[in-house]
Amino acid sequence: MTVLTKGNVKTCKQLLEEFSSKAQPDHPEKIVFSGVGRKDVYNISAPFEDEGDQVIAGRVESRDSEHSSVYFFVERDGEWVPRKNAPVFELQDPFYTRIAGCLVLGGVQIFPHPAIENAFGWRTVFYKGKNIASLEEFAKGPDGMKDLRLVELADGSIGVLTRPQGDKGGRGKIGWTRISKLEELTLDVINEAPLFEGQFIDEEWGGANEPHLLANGLVGVLGHVASFDAACDRHYYPMVFALDPETGVFSDMELIATRSNFLPGDSKRPDLTDVVFSGGIVRKADGTADIYAGISDAEAQKITIADPFLQYEQKTY
Q1: Which SS3 state, helix, strand or coil, does residue 184 take?
Q2: Second label for 156, Cα 20 to 30 Å away, from 11, 94, 244, 269?
Q3: Are 153 and 245 in contact (CB under 8 A)?
Q4: What contacts 15, CB < 8 A, 6 or more positions away?
């Protein structure tokens, strides 16, 4: 099996300097949603096929609220509208994958914090079914963990990317483990997943958003790396890296876009202006890829980049 070089920790500042010297993404485009009143739609998935339709799952919420719903949208006359008779889930930040022929959908569920008054806790919840209409809950992640992701590997086993915070993960670090079937996705398995060493400095954090099985058996990970500035404003950048599922060895992160590559727009709050939340990536035959992203916690856009995973498929280690 191909072995990647071990990652070297890089700060957001270093990653930004490297990115600024590369060819920049182009063709930013706002994704127009309608049919949900005056609510925002952001932190979307990439489009995926369901029963003959291309569907986007999107986080829908009022500008002054964190209470959100996940709707499934289909494109009609250049706008994305709620799909008729599709279920609506009380979740944030939806994502999807396919495992053993099943559609797997996940999102973040919030609930009253058990110890802090007027605060929320959160957990990742998973659903599976043959299609959207048949989705049923099958697993919950640990309380306090977002950015929990699954990927079907070449041998049929399942890779699990975790993101603990607190005593184990600080502000948020990525872990990796494997299971043989979805029924093995337990709290103990998730909590015990080893963390990648040397990926984030303690003052910064990151997470996986969408893992992809690559042609050579490696896993390409679309994710994000984030930091606070001196004013406590948040800065989120979409990034990629690759990992060897056999060894857990991984490559260095690299940024693939910044907020300035996208079109100007609204922000949920002033401290969220410089936030790009990597929703999903659609790889195309011409060597480019479309990135679907939530922008400033208020809207959704897509942008075209050179396919960032080709380098991992084409390189010999």
Answers
A1: helix
A2: 94
A3: yes
A4: 225, 237, 239, 253, 254, 255
* pLDDT tens digit sequence for 122-164: 999 999 999 999 999 999 999 999 999 999 999 999 999 999 9
Q: What is d(CA 71, CA 83) in angstroms, rounded to the nearest whole number?
A: 8
| Separation of alpha carbons 275 and 279, rounded Å | 12
Domain ranges of the chain: 12-314
CB neighbour list of residue 19: distance below 8 Å, 6 or more residues apart? 254, 255, 256, 258
CATH number of 12-314: 2.115.10.20
Specify the DSSP class assigned to residue 264. P
* Distance between CA atoms of residues 81 and 145, nearest Å: 30
Q: Which two structure tokens, joined as six digits, stand for 281?
A: 């990536």
Q: pLDDT per residue over 26-44, tens digit each? A: 899 999 999 999 999 999 9
The rounded distance, in Å, linking the Cα atoms of 134 and 111 is 25
What is residue 5's DSSP assignment?
Answer: P
